[in-house]
Design goal:
7-stranded mixed sheet
Length: 423
């Protein structure tokens, strides 16, 4: 316990661990976002030696929404919630708005800078060893065992090396681990996301107080389905307590995300607020076909492509994926059977594949034109749509009860799509 406490002191005071304690680890986890940190924690708790390598200073652009199920399943303390959202507002191309109140529930909002660091520190408190630095290379020794090359920020090209019985790649949508360890697996299609975090504190504006800006509500998420803001996805304004995330996503490489956010801030009055930071990154929209190399490596989180289509929600699915990856790695270590690694993707797709399929169809059909976006927002007025949407979101599964409601929603959906519904 003394060594662990000393390690934590080094992390907090120096920002990195100056030395690693072993030449060989049971598991090396590369990437300390929600997926990698969850996998590292789960394996460390079970008694495995774990090295968690994470590049410091990077914050993923993210609206920061987490459902109640994540809070329950992963024991997230209430203090990490910077806001509790009680409704969402959908804004159509015509500026028509539809409010979707959450009956009997809420959406938690987190600041990824704080949330991700909490998960990494918790993994370390459970026994994982942290190293704040960059993954450089995946090599093999004479016996074929994985050798991980990595370096601290100040070390430049002077890579350190450790052996790993198992490797978990949780290093994002453009995963270097995936590229080196699974070179023949086609990467996931991506939406490129960009957001600006702005202060919502009254003193951080030279204009009217934020309370006078009628287009902003600290208890409501605003989602803009407008082609001028995104030709194939959506834009958002998500409250984070003392700050707000204003962002946009698009797979169209020729579309200016920064200009779209600038337009959205001007339209909402949030251009008057102080910008705290800006972030951008690709977000995968489909699980890749294979997550493991059939030997000693598996990817999870964004590296595995587990961000929900249509909604872009990734935190819950990343953490579930990290947990499934940890389970698969443990089984592989216990049985010495590499086929155990396949169970992570198999279980994820069994539990969540249908949701991803449905959301993928939704994005394909409804996000392709302003005409369809207008109909989609109108459809959100329906009480059955709202109830089924929020129940599925909060519990992270399709609602199998109330089949009549599903039939009604399906019929209304088809009527809107075919142009048979009343205006």
């Amino acid at each position: 316990m003394t060594d662990l406490n000393a390690t934590q002191t080094n992390i907090r005071s120096n920002g990195f661990v100056p030395a690693v304690s072993k030449d060989t680890y049971d598991v090396v986890v590369i990437g300390g976002g929600p997926s990698g940190a969850t996998a590292a924690q789960d394996l460390a708790i079970r008694g495995y030696s774990v090295l968690l390598i994470d590049k410091p200073g990077r914050i993923k652009p993210c609206g920061g929404a987490i459902p109640p199920r994540l809070i329950r399943d992963f024991d997230i303390p209430p203090r990490l919630l910077c806001a509790r959202i009680s409704s969402a507002r959908m804004i159509a191309p015509s500026d028509k708005t539809v409010d979707m109140p959450i009956d009997g529930g809420y959406v938690g909002m987190v600041d990824r800078e704080v949330f991700d660091e909490f998960l990494r520190e918790r993994a370390a408190e459970c026994g994982a060893e942290r190293f704040n630095g960059s993954f450089d290379d995946l090599e093999r020794d004479a016996d074929g065992q994985a050798v991980i090359a990595f370096s601290a920020p100040e070390e430049e090209k002077a890579s350190r090396r450790v052996h790993a019985r198992m490797v978990i790649g949780a290093d994002g949508a453009k995963s270097k681990v995936k590229k080196l360890g699974l070179p023949n697996v086609k990467p996931a299609p991506c939406v490129f996301a960009y957001h600006e975090i702005v202060s919502t504190e009254p003193g951080d504006t030279d204009a009217s107080p934020l309370a006078d800006m009628v287009d902003y509500d600290g208890g409501r998420c605003d989602v803009y389905y407008q082609g001028k803001l995104s030709p194939d996805f959506y834009a958002w304004v998500f409250p984070h307590g003392k700050t707000a995330s204003i962002g946009v996503g698009s797979a169209n490489k020729g579309f200016s995300l920064r200009s779209a956010v600038r337009t959205l801030r001007a339209d909402t009055g949030l251009n008057q607020m102080k910008t705290v930071r800006t972030e951008g990154a690709p977000i995968p929209m489909k699980p890749i076909k294979r997550w493991d190399n059939g030997k000693d490596l598996i990817v999870c989180g964004d590296a595995a492509g587990v961000v929900a289509p249509a909604s872009g929600e990734g935190i819950y699915y990343a953490m579930v994926c990290g947990r499934y990856a940890a389970d698969a790695v443990q089984e592989c270590l216990m049985t010495a059977n590499p086929a155990a690694l396949k169970t992570a993707r198999r279980k994820f797709m069994k539990d969540h594949g249908r949701v991803f399929f449905v959301l993928g169809l939704l994005q394909y059909f409804w996000y392709c034109s302003d005409k369809r976006r207008e109909k989609f927002v109108k459809m959100c007025e329906d009480e059955d749509v709202q109830r089924l949407t929020w129940t599925a979101y909060m519990n992270k599964e399709l609602v199998r009860r109330d089949p009549l409601a599903h039939i009604k929603v399906f019929m209304k959906d088809m009527a809107q799509l075919l142009g048979l519904a009343r205006a």
